[in-house]
Write a structure and sequence with these properties.
This protein is mainly beta. 8% of the residues lie in helices and 54% in strands.
């Protein structure tokens, strides 16, 4: 079924944009017409000094940098960013698993956006991991940490990651690559622009499939349509419609210890499937009120379905066999999520109290709902059976914020701000006579940041702000009882310096995050959720440096040091948070000669624990519950290269995990092993 839809998507793209395709030769030899910008909400912005206006650490990764890495997933690119730790479950990162600045990579406390729109299925109702944007549609990646994160929410304790999608240039660009484990991928980007340049339409369509490392096969389609029109100098409207589906043979079960130590590479759950669909619709409007004021409004809708079919196991038989022995009992944990929201932001240059200023005001309204069913089936029944648990979770939220950047002098600017998040959560259990419970909460989140120009090339930045992450419905309303839980609150501090001196660029930032009441999820006793709240502290530093030596040689490096990421109270007092290594580092040695570009990329992840108890040994049997153990440090190196034969044709390839390192990426009912050495080869061809 999935394979049948790909030609249809590509045919539609070609039909819509056939005019530009027929003028392919002209598009190669002439300068392409510039499309109007999509009026989306940006985390950083496109002006030259936008990042210097922000009071927190900023990382921008553009399309050229992304293509140089040749990532298979968005998280493959994110792991190159200082401060970010990845807990991958398979090489294409179908679900999101990343932590920022010592926050656990298994429970995100950071906001993930696409073109300024939340893309995690549930921000207030939980299950934020179940969708991850596809790397094939991404143009730029913005990562924002520190007090500038206050402009967004919720769940900005670690920061904000914003994926900016591609707006296709005029013409048709075809990309294809193939690699180890049967990986094959094809994308088409097609764009057309009106003669006046006031309107455009574009499509990005991708099909990818493969056997996957450890036979975790996948079959994915992703189609995104974008269009925009500038009615006049004041009003611009943009539209984005996307459709995604993925059928993946993945599970929460990993290898048991003995098989992992033997180097086994089989799929430990060969009959389990993770089926995902997502449809979304974004409508944006930009109104330039005058030379000093701009109003941006963004309305969005998304629907995500995630059907997760898992076979039960015979634990005694699994222990005896040293691997999972599956029964004929099948369970479908099937969930769907809907979100509708509208957000508006007003930016206003001003002169207040005799001081030049840049103000921003924002307002957001959002509703989320999930439909959670549990289907009991058998192998013979094949995904049909009795629904013995049916729950509906709902959340309604309103957020408002205001900030003003006071430009006190040519060197000093101070930005105070305030964000308010008010939300109501409700859970209804249809299989329990429609029993329900409701809870409400309001969070006041002040902050202040500053920038100071030490010189024309060096800037000090820093700030302090209050951040929070809401307790999901399953925790806040555990046992259909209002647990009276506040959000997970954190007071965050940051101080850093960044600069550019000719061939040298650098940034150093120190951070401290103090949680008032970090909630550990996973309880079934309604009396436990509140008592599990506790304090945690995260302290550390990030370092990044880039240097151009000349003669085509350059280097980029970054490191993260988090000496403290610990529980301060509760049952785990004194322990380190899971999936929060003390050391992470990246190194890229780049060389360019003519049309040839090459890179040697190294990634190091220090040791970390798999659960809050900080147990060291990994279980040897098929015991249930949370899997713990210490994950050893590892280093992987990649070699990447690309050659531009002409403006129309570029070839690229890579060898990843060159040394064929054997390492553990995560633990969850077994061991998740990282991919062995892989080879990839691809081309980009502009018609």
């Amino acid at each position: 079924m999935l394979m049948q839809r790909q030609p249809i998507a590509l045919a539609i793209a070609t039909l819509i944009l056939g005019t530009s395709a027929s003028q392919a030769d002209e598009s190669i030899v002439k300068e392409q017409r510039k499309t109007i910008p999509m009026p989306v909400i940006e985390v950083v912005g496109k002006r030259v000094n936008d990042s210097k206006r922000l009071t927190g650490s900023v990382v921008l990764m553009d399309r050229e940098q992304i293509e140089a890495i040749q990532p298979l997933s968005t998280e493959d690119a994110l792991r190159r960013v200082p401060g970010i730790n990845i807990k991958s479950e398979e090489e294409t990162s179908i679900v999101a698993n990343f932590g920022i600045r010592g926050l656990s990579a298994s429970e995100s406390k950071s906001l993930m956006l696409e073109d300024g729109v939340p893309v995690a299925p549930g921000l207030f109702i939980g299950n934020e991991r179940y969708f991850n944007p596809r790397i094939q549609r991404i143009e730029n990646i913005e990562v924002l940490k520190g007090s500038a994160s206050l402009r967004y929410g919720p769940s900005t304790i670690g920061g904000v990651v914003n994926y900016q999608t591609k707006t296709p240039d005029e013409g048709v660009l075809i990309s294809a690559r193939a690699g180890s484990y049967g990986m094959q991928e094809m994308s088409i980007e097609a764009g057309a622009t009106s003669d006046s340049g006031d309107a455009f339409m574009g499509v990005v369509a991708t099909h990818a499939d493969g056997n996957g490392y450890m036979d975790k096969d996948y079959d994915m389609n992703d189609v995104m349509l974008k269009a925009g029109i500038a009615f006049n100098d004041q009003h611009t409207v943009g539209l984005k419609v996307s459709w995604y589906e993925n059928e993946a043979n993945i599970s929460y079960r990993g290898l048991l210890l003995e098989d992992y130590e033997k180097g086994a590479t089989y799929n430990p759950a060969p009959d389990d499937f993770f089926l995902t669909d997502r449809n979304s619709f974004d409508l944006s409007h930009e109104w330039i009120l005058n030379d000093t004021a701009t109003l941006k409004t963004l309305a969005y809708y998304s629907e995500v379905t995630r059907d997760y079919w898992r076979y039960n196991v015979d634990t005694p038989a699994s222990n005896e066999a040293g691997r999972w022995v599956h029964t004929d009992s099948l369970t479908g944990n099937n969930r769907s999520f809907e979100r509708v929201g509208i957000e508006t932001r007003l930016t206003l240059d001003n002169f207040f109290l005799g001081v030049d200023g840049e103000a921003e005001f924002g307002l957001r309204y959002m509703e989320e709902e999930s439909n959670d069913t549990r289907i009991r089936a058998t192998r013979a029944a094949d995904r049909t059976g009795n629904n013995d648990r049916h729950r509906v979770d709902y959340a309604e939220s309103v957020a408002a914020y205001a900030q003003n950047r006071f430009i006190l002098s040519d060197a000093l600017a101070i930005t105070p701000g305030l964000r308010v998040e008010s939300y109501e959560q409700k859970r209804t259990v249809l299989t329990d006579n429609n029993a329900s419970a409701t809870t409400r909460n309001t969070e006041w989140l002040p902050g202040v940041g500053a920038t100071y120009e030490l010189s024309a090339n060096d800037q000090v930045f820093g700030g302090v702000y209050r951040a929070f992450s809401p307790a999901a419905n399953e925790v806040a309303l555990d046992g259909l009882t209002d647990q009276q839980l506040d959000g997970e609150r954190s007071t965050n501090y940051e101080l850093g310096i960044r600069g550019t001196h000719g061939a040298l660029t650098y940034e150093v930032a120190a951070f401290n995050m103090d949680f008032d009441n970090q909630v550990v999820t996973g309880n079934s006793d309604p009396n436990l959720s509140q008592s599990n709240a506790g304090e945690t502290t995260h302290r550390g530093m990030e370092f990044s440096v880039g240097y151009i030596f000349g003669n085509g040689l350059s280097i980029d490096a970054n490191a993260t040091w988090v000496p403290e990421s610990d529980f301060k109270s509760g049952a785990y007092a004194g322990n380190r948070l899971p999936y929060a290594p003390e050391h992470i580092a990246n190194l890229a040695l780049n060389y360019q000669s003519g049309n040839l570009r090459t890179g040697f990329l190294v990634h190091y992840r220090g040791e970390q624990f798999g659960d809050p108890s900080n147990r060291v040994d990994i279980p040897t049997n098929a015991a249930g519950g949370i899997w713990g153990g210490k994950l050893d440090a590892y280093t992987v190196a990649d070699i990447v290269a690309q050659y531009e034969f002409s403006r129309a044709l570029t070839a690229f390839g890579s060898i990843k995990n060159v040394s064929d390192e054997r390492f553990i990426t995560g633990l969850r009912q077994g061991i998740y092993a990282g991919p062995e050495r892989t080879f990839e080869l691809g081309i980009r061809f502009r018609l």
